[in-house]
């Protein structure tokens, strides 16, 4: 199938295209030059007066896996009012607002023009489940990050200083469970939580049973990441998430690896920084640490971060930070779920509602926006709501509205807690993102930080034909004043293409397809691999309750697997 | 005048969704228009006229409408959903979720009703002459306490099942017969009066409101404390004569123990040991 | 009038004989029995091994009385199965789970005979087919793979333990020996070909006639497409891959999709829906737990390797064995498992909720006014509460004793709250003892595809869930369904008799490798292959750990997997609904 998207205003930061009128040609699922398609036979989309960009890339959204599913099961009430009907042979049914079912996830992302989404936290022992769920999410391409910071093998290697063996182990496990990057969550806390401890673990506090602090784990895994040349930096959810004053932990974590940056590439990605950006001594005095964090990021190029922006309304907090969820259960009594995974990690789930008039929730709301607006380099900031922790991903257009329009922010600020506003610099910030910067934030830079910039996040020749066309005319619209139109346009894309197939038209699903799953295949010397596998075999039977052979996921188990081949620096 | 009669055209086998059968939906409509209203017979979308013979003339406003269902509609779901005024009378059994989210008016069932009578009811009156099943006046699963019935009156002349008044916030439920276990579970307010016996676990997790049991109950939950003896108590619109033991609880739901569980003294001689805790 | 309390449940012999064959004498002898205390038998003048008639308000059945030390005066035990279901209480208290434990009953000697399995349901609307197993023989294959293969790390597909360390020797396409499996797992692997179905069949004029697969698929698709409220039930003994197709099929035909958790741990879901659940994987428990409670479950019979592999006796990383653990067992009778207890608590039938509440009060040091709760002296409750608080890592395993008794989901809700409360003091988790080997997986699949884990009504084109209304048990008991697809399960053996009666009034499609009681009243039978023996499939253990069960022998010629049959069904239904 060949397509020509004619006459649209193209935004493609990776190729330096800033809204020029261009035609985009699609053939065999890829972007090709116009000369490659048969202009008479190709189907045409008239994108006059519309914005054309690559499909959105979301680097952190909890869309699949055991804790996501546990969230669904414990919240039937989240599924009564929000649902989708089956539509003929085109669209399937589903339900859920903050814990949507798989078809709804794929459809609602595609309807907003997003085409690649990363599940950022999967427990290795249960990752087969994560892949099954990812396989049932239609349309989007995906990958998952295994949780590795409290893994017994890794803790033992790090404690002994065996960095190379640790690296070899991580290369092995990424291949074994088809993972993409190294994920750390409140590093070391899951091991402490195995004994019910670890609440509010400090960065420099030793983990029970180990001569290691969370920062030792961060540094060790950062080194491992460099050695393996993995496409994405270590992805870190800092310690003491949810505790007033925790912004210092974020600064310490970022600083701990400042010397480890290589080749000008970032050495650490801090995720949902809003949740670890609080000043203050208690909930009564909590404030925004956004300015401090933004200042550090502006002065230090080795850091990237994503927002975890709060959106008022219903949310479901779900994270591998199980001790934090225990704390939240006390702060916001209601339901609480927990699921430890032997040898590896844990998870907690607590439903939550962000209220406008609530002082703390208002402070939380300001932080993400504050950081996005104060950080000067749009290539190192990514838009997320840590779905569904700070809000559902369906609210991305609203967040974009706040970023492009001071008026939008003011309108919301009229409705929130006034005392909370005083604890943040947000009311004083005038900056407004333009459409080019929004494109960077939501497509170009996430694709780049994932190491997928060859085929994702841009519309140059050779890219996957993942295209979003929005019904908004940059020549006629004043984003600052008419942000509502931008929000509306992003809520329902005029057209979305996935791998060269038209999947969304006029905001409705017109085709049910399945994307591919990326994982990293990192090559290491075979003798080192054998050494590490022997280590694993020796301890597996004593530690785990399953056989090693059954732990490893076969290639044939995943619908459409795509390895990213990487060569490590190991000898 | 204002009366509309519905007679099932055949014996229903599968569930029939009747959420459009209410005085609000029927008012100011002709019989033909009423017949066009959507209903479901299982997975088949139907019109009311496919399922019922419809006769009569509805009034112009909901309060002027009386709907009479002549026959058995035990397969019905959500009869009278969200109605604000007017009357529905069923001369037979009425199915499940009768009066879902009702805001006013009166529903009278001459036969039995199924599950979730008066689910999330806000106001109005439901009277069941036969038995009701479980979750009378209840909230839906997963909803927090207080999301059940918040106003109105439900009268059941027969027996009711488990979890009567689950998650209730206000209003009254009166059962002439017996009730199953867990009456008043998750209750935060409102009144429940049971003239017969209760299977047990009364008042589980209640934070407020009142439960009266005139018959027997085998055991009181250990999270309740005896407070006093009362001669009688009013559960609108009725008055119950005791004497009653008054227990407060549920200490595990709220240590303030604002819930009240009244249990007949005469019908529960095995509860006499509690008297030693009375001054 | 009623002098006994009847409970039903699993036994080792029931499980073993189920795998050897439901229509076998061994099965009848192990399931059509009523276990009674010696004192009760003497009082009523019933001889051990003689027939008795058990009567409840819901029915009556003739079974053989046997003396058992695993019961207690006043309590009688009938193993789960079609005989028990003649007398159980169909009332689910709006939960979907009938009351299969704690039913008032009488027992009297009788000269009547014990009915054969299919005769139990012969009085309803469709006469069950009597199967002559001597006439059924496996088709000869044109090629038999020869040679001996030794398979290691085989994933067992019987119960929720999903042990994955089995060793199976296959010679000339036949399983010759099995190592590491329990008696039931072994019985399945060595007997799976017993009572097998080899050809698709359609019921014509009261007889089952062999037909081609295409004809059977066409008949099945017609039944489903013409139905206004079909149920698609079972699933727990097949793979996730099959379940995903099942949800699609249910969505296409606008029916209700449900699995066996409705009659097992559905109430656990109901409890989780109210308060959440605090749990851990089995390895975490094996490595760390120094206090184990088994509440209302009998692992030595229902999950035979559980105590050795994962819990009481298992060797963990921090906790080395039985000696470093305390075991508490709570049950209405001294179950076979209770002999391993450090502390055995006998709770009054139907009062588990009250006992848990008392424990919660004791944990928080609140005064309990009553001197006895649920038949347990207050001092014993305080003693148990202290043991729980002083554990380093505690776990509460629970089973049908909590889900089937009055209170249903609220019993589990209270147990979860107890565990949540204990986390103020120490580390504590709870884990349900899941029955079938993939009930957890099929719940998970339904949850991610629809938003709800079971009892999902898709008749209006989108998922709705409300056990009591949308549970297949209640639907059949009320007679709401007008067609049924039964796959990888046998509801005629495990649902109350009112449900079976209604099942005989409607067209029934059965997809199963073996003959079941449900097949005897089916209108279309499509035989399939065994997951974990003949075909691959992903299954989830009771703690949600996903494993891939692999094929070790080929299925008989012409027998496809559940996946393939469902794919054919879906294609046929799509053709009928949307055109070629």
Strand order of the largest sheet of chain C: 11-10-26-25-24-12-13-22-23
Give a count of the beta strands of chain B, DSSP E runs of length 2 or more: 19
Count of all domains of chain C: 3
Percentage of residues assigned to helices of chain C: 25-40%
- Low-pLDDT parts of chain B are none
Radius of gyration of chain B: 20 Å
CA-CA gap between termini of chain B: 62 Å
How many whole angstroms does the radius of gyration of chain C measure? Answer: 23 Å
CATH topology of the largest domain in chain C: Rossmann fold
Using the 3D structure, state the CATH architecture of the largest domain in chain C: 3-Layer(aba) Sandwich
Name the pair of protein chains with the most residues at their interface, and give those residue counts.
A-C, 64 and 63 residues
Helix amount of chain B: under 10%
Descriptive account of the structure:
The complex is a heterotrimer of chains A (571), B (279) and C (580). With 571 residues, chain A is of the alpha/beta class. Helix content of chain A is 32%, strand content 21%. In chain A, strands 1, 2, 3, 4, 5, 21, 22, 23 and 24 form a nine-stranded mixed β-sheet that branches. A five-stranded parallel β-sheet of chain A has the order 11-12-13-16-20, sandwiched between helices. In chain A, a hairpin with a 7-residue loop joins strand 14 (278-279) and strand 15 (287-288). In chain A, helix 4 (152-160) runs antiparallel to helix 5 and helix 12 (396-404) runs antiparallel to helix 16 (483-491). Chain B is mainly beta and 279 residues long. Chain B has three helices and 19 strands. In chain B, the strands form three sheets. A 13-stranded mixed β-sheet of chain B has the order 5-1-6-8-9-10-11-12-14-16-19-18-17. Chain B has a four-stranded mixed β-sheet with strand order 4-3-2-7. In chain B, strands 13-15 form a two-stranded parallel ribbon. The longest helix of chain B has 6 residues, at 31-36. Chain C has 580 residues and is α/β, with parallel strands linked by helices. Chain C folds into three domains: 4-115, Barwin-like endoglucanases, CATH 2.40.40.20; 201-265 and 438-530 and 558-578, 3-Layer(aba) Sandwich (Rossmann fold), CATH 3.40.50.740; 267-432, Dimethylsulfoxide Reductase, domain 2. Chain C is built from 19 helices and 28 strands. Chains A and C meet through helix 1, strand 7, strand 8, helix 2 and helix 3 of A and helix 6, helix 7, strand 14, helix 8 and helix 15 of C. Strand 18 (337-340) of chain A pairs parallel with strand 14 of chain C.
